[in-house]
């Protein structure tokens, strides 16, 4: 046996090879009279018996903390929906008893109508009333059986873009035609605004455009 093989059989060497030791008959144990144990549990009992009481308590506290963390993690894993299975429906189910979103779940489950105020870039655009079919954490809403009332300016205040009034009037008439094509009916008109109404089977409203949601009391 050369020096390199002896180093592989030496327990204190950096070249120690456990596989070679298990298959070799020339291994010299560093402590041949050391006590042997059948299992790791038997060894732990001897170590704990001879351990300093303070260190023993610290070790027990660490083990308890580790056990508690493992139990909490297991409980979280059991109550957590896998990411691959998360969608708007699992979110609505999770929100059933928490905060304002819980009110939306109640309205959805009990078929209670809600009133939604929507906005555009500078003022309140209109009001929608209907039944909630779905929602998400961004307050995007899917409504059904929707009655919508919204307003439109009659015409621009002034030709700030250099357009003449005839062009602005033509654009306003085109807007009125578009409103009529989507089933909107003008129900009120004054010098500045026109109020339109329409009924929709389904409507999706972005959360960014929602100002207020309230329960419609019948």
From TrEMBL:
Which GO molecular function, any one, fits this protein according to its record? U7 snRNA binding
Q: Name one GO cellular component term.
A: U7 snRNP
Domain Sm residue range list: 101-218
Q: Fetch the Pfam families from UniProt.
A: LSM
> Which terms does the UniProt entry file under GO BP?
mRNA 3'-end processing by stem-loop binding and cleavage
Query: CDD domains, per this entry?
Result: LSm11_M
Q: What is this protein called?
A: Sm domain-containing protein
Organism whose genome encodes this protein: Strigamia maritima
What taxonomic lineage is listed for the species of origin?
A: Eukaryota, Metazoa, Ecdysozoa, Arthropoda, Myriapoda
